[in-house]
Amino acid sequence: MTRHTSKPTSTHVSGSCLCGRVRMQVAEFDTQVVACHCSQCRKQTGSYYHAASVLDSNLTMEGREFVKEYAASDFAKRGFCSECGSALYWKQNDADTTSVMVGHFDNPTGLRTIGHIFVDDMGDYYTLDPELPQYPQSDT
Fold first, then answer.
1. What CATH number does residue 93 fall under?
2. What angle do CA 50, 78, 61 make, to 5 degrees?
């Protein structure tokens, strides 16, 4: 879910988990959102993720004592709020970026979904916008 090419950016976006114990502020980040339909994302949320890549140096998180991480694979971890269960992020091990779940941000965000990944794993109970690119697995 990580992107490293030049794209439009948004600045000074903030938000929180459902209970508000974990708050995030982003100084600057990629406004391009990717929807991930892999089985792990679906199992963690009951649906699929919408995430934007944020450089760790641009991400401030308050309430980290409420953040729990789960290593769902040997190459990445998923963060969630231990109080309300909100899925917060996906982070590849040793990466300098974090894929933050954008549903936590307060409007307006300036974000836009640019495509869908892991559509081979998507649930059979929803449809996708045919105008957006769809990738059977990752888009890289």
1. 2.170.150.70
2. 80
> Structural domain of residue 20, as residue ranges?
9-121
Q: Extract the tokens encoding 134.
A: 């769809």
Residues 134, 115: contact at Cβ < 8 Å? yes
pLDDT value, residue 5: 45
Q: Confirm whether 127 is domain-assigned.
A: no
Which ranges of the chain have pLDDT less than 50?
1-6
Give dist(CA 73, CA 100) in Å, integer: 18
* Structural domains counted in the chain: 1
Indicate whether 4 belongs to any domain.
Answer: no
Q: Are strands 9-16 and 23-30 parallel, antiparallel or unpaired?
A: antiparallel
Terminal CA-CA length for the chain: 9
